[in-house]
Amino acid sequence: MLFLIWTGVLIGVIYIYLRRAHSRYTPYDIKQLPTLPFIGNVLPLILRKMHFVEDLSRYYDSFPEERFIGKYEFTNPVIIVRDLELIKKVTIKDFEYFLDHRAFTDETVEPIFARNLFSLRGDEWKDMRSTLSPAFTSSKIRVMVPFMEEVGNQMMAALKKQIKANGGQPVEIDCRDLTRRYANDVIASCAFGLKVDSHADGDTQFFEMGRNAAEFKMRQMIMFLAYSAFPTFVKWIKITLFTKETTSFFRSLVIDTMRNREAHNILRPDMIHLLMEAKKGHLNHDENSKERDAGFATVEESAVGKKHIIRTWSDNDLIAQAVLFFIAGFETVSSAMSFAIRELALNKDIQDRLAKNIREDFNKNNGKIDYTSIQNLPYLDQVFSEVLRLWTPGFQLDRICTKPYNLGKPNKNGQKEYIVSNIRNIIWL
Fold it and tell me: Matching CDD domains, A to Z (predicted)?
């Protein structure tokens, strides 16, 4: 009898806690979809019945008159911002309130991910940002274009070989696989200094390990949601984003490559070289550079990025940045290319005009493709900008509110302003 009483009390306490946890927005008239006890709003994601993009669109489209909406990842409260002016305030004007991203893992559990630029916070993020930003100037990207061209030639050679094997007739190509292999080989060349031809050689070890690191499978999704809601528990049971095999592969790859280059005085203008220069403190902004910062996602560097930092790099710091280059570039680049191919196939007039422009520039430069010739193709820039607008690989941004911030009223009829004080994350489109 006593056991039943205490069981009933425990259930009652849990019920009251969950009800309060999922009712944080009610007093402020912040709209939210129905929640499940403890699960919150993440059941469709856990069961893989809905993609993250579909899930976000569901909230966005369900409340068209709201400036921001509430959501729960388990018991962890999240705000989804819809209002464009509020997004500008959060990302620009009041950015000092939202410096940090949410964490996906802990440095004690998985240092090669926790130490990357995306995961660092506060002053560590600012210092790393300042240290690495010279690696992404147009003058540094310029010298990597030949590596990208070489990989493009490998891809074209593989396609021509398939057409020839088919008697010169058209062949059916899986564009998603094609662009993933291209992105993989470009990153292998530009970031890790490896010559990989996954079009001709099939599923190489680098391709397999890279795919394991970049794909967002069930393991990564559970880790992503669980660490946001229960960081202490996840650290205790030591769940990792990557398998031990993947972690060991990239650790050995980066460290061995750097040691080999130092031992044999090898100089190759890729990301490994830039990281080695950063470790020595030799990677600085070229204040006298006359490279134009326009088009194709190149922008003028801010004062934050030009701040001179002297820091001591650990091996984990170097490995983390190298792996981040892969994760950030593999799916995003291949997805953008796939959608570009799709749109060009559906819009033949645009395809013909773009092909004409490229051929004319190609002939004008005697068959040479370099950074300057690409910059002289504004229509190509317009096509990819439109593809990225329609099919953006980056479908959300997330930030943690580091100090109390007034978001204002959730809608024009709202009576109370909502001050973010105990919320962990803000997500906006």
Answer: CYP6-like
CA Rg, the chain, in Å? 25
Based on the fold, state whether residues 183 and 146 are members of the same structural domain. yes
Within 277-373, strands assigned E span none
32 and 145, same structural domain? Answer: no
- Residue for token pair 């950015």: 95
Report the number of distinct structural domains present in the chain.
2
Q: Is residue 104 part of a domain?
A: no
Is residue 417 a contact partner of residue 406, using CB atoms and an 8 Å limit? yes
User: Is 67 in contact with 410 (CB distance < 8 Å)?
Assistant: yes
Helix axes 315-346, 175-190, angle to 10 degrees: 150
**Nearest residue to 175 (alpha-carbon basis) of 327, 331, 341, 336:** 341
Q: What is the pLDDT of residue 354?
A: 96
Within this chain, do residues 380 and 405 fall inside the same structural domain, yes or no? no
Question: Does the predicted model carry a pTM greater than 0.85?
Answer: no
pLDDT tens per residue, range 189-215: 888 888 889 888 888 888 888 887 777
d(CA 70, CA 426): 10
Proportion of the chain above pLDDT 90, given as a percent:
22
Q: Which residue, among 359, 254, 257, 261, has the nearest Cα to 315 in the 3D structure?
A: 254
Report the alpha-carbon distance of residue 349 to residue 53 in Å, rounded.
30
Residue 55 lies in a domain: yes
pLDDT in tens, 69-123: 999 888 888 899 999 999 999 888 998 888 888 777 777 777 777 788 888 887 8
Domain span at residue 309?
129-390
- Cross-strand partners of 78: 71, 425
300 in the same domain as 212: yes
State the angle between helix axes of 315-346 and 244-264 in degrees (0 to 180), rounded to the nearest 10: 110
